[in-house]
Amino acid sequence: MTQPDPLERLRALQAHDLPVHGGRTLAYVYDSGLPEVDRVGREAVAAYAGSNGLDPTAFPSLLQMENELVGFALDLLDGPGTAVGTVTSGGTESVLLAVQAARDAHPDVVEPRMVLPATAHAAFHKAAHYFGVEPVLVPVGDSYAADVAATARAVDEARDRTVLVVASAPSYAHGVVDPVTELAALAAARGIRCHVDACIGGWVLPYAARLGRAVPPWTFAVEGVTSISVDLHKYGYAPKGTSLLLHRTPELRRPQLFASAAWPGYTMLNSTMQSTKSGGPLAGAWAVVESLGDTGYELLSREVFRAVDAIVAGTTDIDGLDLLVSPQSTLIALVTDASCDAFTVCDEMATRGWYVQPQMSYGATPPTIHLSVSAATGAHVDELLTALRDSVRAAQQAGPVSVDDDVVAFIEALDPAALSDADFDGLLAASGLVGGGDSLELPERMAEVNALLDVATPAMREALLTAFLDRLSRPVRRADGIR
């Protein structure tokens, strides 16, 4: 090893990232605030980084850990004795597999469809795109919960083609638990699967109920729920990336499994979308769950809900800021009044050392400020509320950000499906995402960029951001990168 220490360069690169510890990043990461738990998870990942989950007979320890994690989750989520599960790489893979299994359980259905509330995670749209399952979106009402009657009508419009009904526990954008009892019942009455996406709430809502908080029923205790996705790298506080897809019976899971002997090599046998997969994330998750156990998670849940309640109470004293809807879990969505805008508040929070996530408008819902509260945030709630108050005040002084009318008209006149590379270049430059040529010039403050994206249609927004991602993903040659 004649090169300079790569870990030194790694630390230098990582210094530009959002902090993953300290409770100040309220999206993307979930922090228990317990250094010892983090240490155990990291060491387990390192110990199993070279292990391969492709063949459980070659690495039986991985199979044992997976079965124990599934068992722990099923005990937590009222799984019947027949229930089974699989560890996946994350919530999106769990959702993809749930949709794929529902589709493949009905090989006779030529044009399968699934019915989901408009608030369901975008991973379902990704599954629809990958697997050719039509997504039928049902609008939600003022409560931001799924509309049961509208869902029933949507299912009955093409019952013979509907293979899945979806519910969230809770929805990511708003933190609302859908009426799973009613949705599962209407699905069961029609012989249709019902999947509950509890990726973000599945490891914390059971403890919320245990602590006496009002949580609508959503687990396998609800008749008609056929599968549940729940992430370990969110409120399981495990290293990225691990999730679980749980099925009520082995028969329901069977279409998820893939085998192929149609080549001269080994017979491929997979339970997930991956074949080769590192044992590191699985071992890290197992080690964290083993360390915390049921009691540890209950204590962490107590901490996180104490923080949620304090944040909710504190925002009532901040003029210009309000709750979009009362949170039912650990997710908070805030709205601003006409005196300022959500995007500027997010920028101001960043200058004060806090990352809160801007969410674009959707239908009649205005832009929101999203907070995913984790246990580590609890020790800093007073600082968070002070930063929010100061950020709103600064945003009010600056005034709401606006987009030039001519730019709005230009965007509205474009067809995102027919944009040329030159159109993309012009739009990216107008949005402030790139400078001349291929150079990226991402501004430190994103309010104007987000405001421009917000006036674009969802299709145009997708096109712009896809072009931006393409620009980001360009090779760094040896002269400037790895040598």
Distance between the termini: 12 Å
Q: Share of helix among residues?
A: 40-55%
In what range is the share of β-strand residues?
5-15%
What is the CATH C-level name of the largest domain? Alpha Beta
Estimated radius of gyration: 23 Å
The shape is globular
Number of helices: 16
Low-confidence spans: pLDDT under 50, at least 5 residues?
Answer: none
Total count of strands: 13
- Name the helix and strand elements from N-terminus to C-terminus, one letter apiece: HHHEHEHEHEHEHEEHEEHEEHEEHHHHH
Overall pLDDT confidence? 93
List the strand order in the largest sheet: 1-7-6-5-4-2-3
CATH fold naming of the largest domain: Aspartate Aminotransferase, domain 2
CATH architecture of the largest domain: 3-Layer(aba) Sandwich
The fourth-level CATH homologous superfamily of the largest domain is: Type I PLP-dependent aspartate aminotransferase-like (Major domain)
Description:
The strands form three sheets. A seven-stranded mixed sheet has the order 1-7-6-5-4-2-3, sandwiched between helices. The radius of gyration is 23 Å and the shape is globular. It starts with 5 loop residues before the first helix and ends in an 11-residue tail after the last helix. The longest helix is centred in the middle third of the chain and has 36 residues. α10 packs across α12. The chain contains 16 helices and 13 strands. The chain has three domains: 250 residues, Aspartate Aminotransferase, domain 2 (3-Layer(aba) Sandwich), CATH 3.40.640.10; 105 residues, Alpha-Beta Complex (Aspartate Aminotransferase, domain 1); 68 residues, no CATH class. The protein is α/β, with parallel strands linked by helices. Its cofactor is pyridoxal 5'-phosphate.
